Amino acid sequence: KVDGNWWRGAVIYQIYPRSFQDTTGDGLGDIKGITQRLPHVASLGVDAIWLSPFFTSPMADMGYDVSDYCNVDPMFGTLADFDEMMTEAHRLGLKVIIDQVISHTSDRHPWFIESRSSRTNPKADWYVWADPKPDGTAPTNWLSIFGGPGWEWDGVRKQYYMHNFLISQPDLNFHNPDVQDAMLDTVRFWLDRGVDGFRLDTVNYYFHDKQLRSNPPMVYDTDGAGMETDTNPYSMQNHLYDKTQPENIGFLKRLRALLDSYDNRASVGEVGDGPRSLNTLALYTTGDDKLHMCYTFDLLGPAFSAAYIRKVMQTVLDTVVNGWVCWAFSNHDVVRHVTRFTEDPSEQDRVAKLSATLISVLRGSICLYQGEELGLSEAELTYEDLRDPYGIRFWPAFKGRDGCRTPMVWEAGETHAGFSEGAKTWLPIPADHASRSVDAQEAMPDSVLQHYRETFAFRKNHHALIDGDMTFIETNQDLLAFVREKGGEKLLFVFNLTREPQNFVLPKRMGDVMPVDLPGFVSKLEAGAVKLDALDVFCARV
Ligand code: TEU
Fold it and tell me: What architecture (CATH level 2) is domain 11-102+177-459?
């Protein structure tokens, strides 16, 4: 098991297959397209790719509604295309992580079709079925993440079934060991094919409360200002019984044992558990018998401030002592971070570069999302453009997730920026994206793209950054200052995420410091004080 720890500190590039590269002219990306563009991914110096779902699916939730776990949707190609893609990835030194969406299936999955057909069929208990309350209403007050009740009435069984997401995404009943076995079989299928790991969709949603208790209003402390009761019935914070059940630990152990029966395989779970997410992450990743690592939504929200990032990071250092976190600023579910972190287009490159440097020096593994290496902003779409059911439902209060899912931009001068030769792409490509294409940025030495390459190379050259310790330094300014340390290597970082220049006086006990230039940033030290421009970073050997 030479490479069993490859995931620890790894940089993972997320590919959204529908929007990466089209080779058939239908305006939708496909697996052959991924194979074709892998050299670009490898050129960034990343360790692995994570592919969002490409399995057989009616695509109600863009593939997160699976109807056959062991096949490729014809829209994306064939299993042979997948094998070819994986061979090419491995040849380029990239591990391959696929997205296991096992909390729920599509309602067109044969298991659900059978399960809903009667109350006595062999799969009758594979999903979460329940009788109505005496007054005919849904069994509990659980809500769907995508709006409305978390229960749907089925006229044939004359029972409700539970769904955390779309009505067409019924939740599996993980209390039933046959369901666990069936899902582990699908994991084994891909392990045997040679995949290196799994991103586990909604990993804390697998089990529901067996007693079917309604959620009480939840008391929580959002901003450190004291406990508040959440009385909003539509708030996710209300969820107490419908997810993160203790029984999940047993299943995660089974899953880990399966992964460990193969060499060098890894898992990264997605934990969406409101303010408790980091505690859940600690629980799921501590010890070598559950998940390797998880990510939460803590850095996927709006805040780009020293105080906020320090608070999140310090919580991790305090609670995730023997576990491991994977950070991301962007993915296929949230507004692209450049847009979240600045409204000023003239700051776009600077913010893209500074956030790349920041995420590369935090303690944890990293996911970056396709297009992030180009500094792409969120695409502005019209209602007519939308494809995401979540956005269609809540427009315009919530514009959905299509704005981060528009196609990759490869060659500025080509039709659809080189993404597709078809007449139309599934989502439009914004004009300002095309001008940030890969080929345009290849030609510019100080582009965001080159910055990502240089920054990942810098990270690779400093083991303290990959899995070294991290200690914060007190500052009374609005700065983020910390030391990363491993085996005699000690690196100080001071980030200024504000729009004002700032000075930082080095603590006396630090002794001699040797400024280190980071890619894209020159470290300035004058008479014991660090000089930071607006949106700047200082690094030194201490
Ligand atoms: O996301 C789970 C999840 O928590 C998201 O629904 C999140 O709350 C929302 O997207 C924030 O905008 C996973 C997948 O990443 C997502 O694409 C799927 O739609 C969802 O599961 C259902 O499978």
Answer: Alpha-Beta Barrel (3.20)
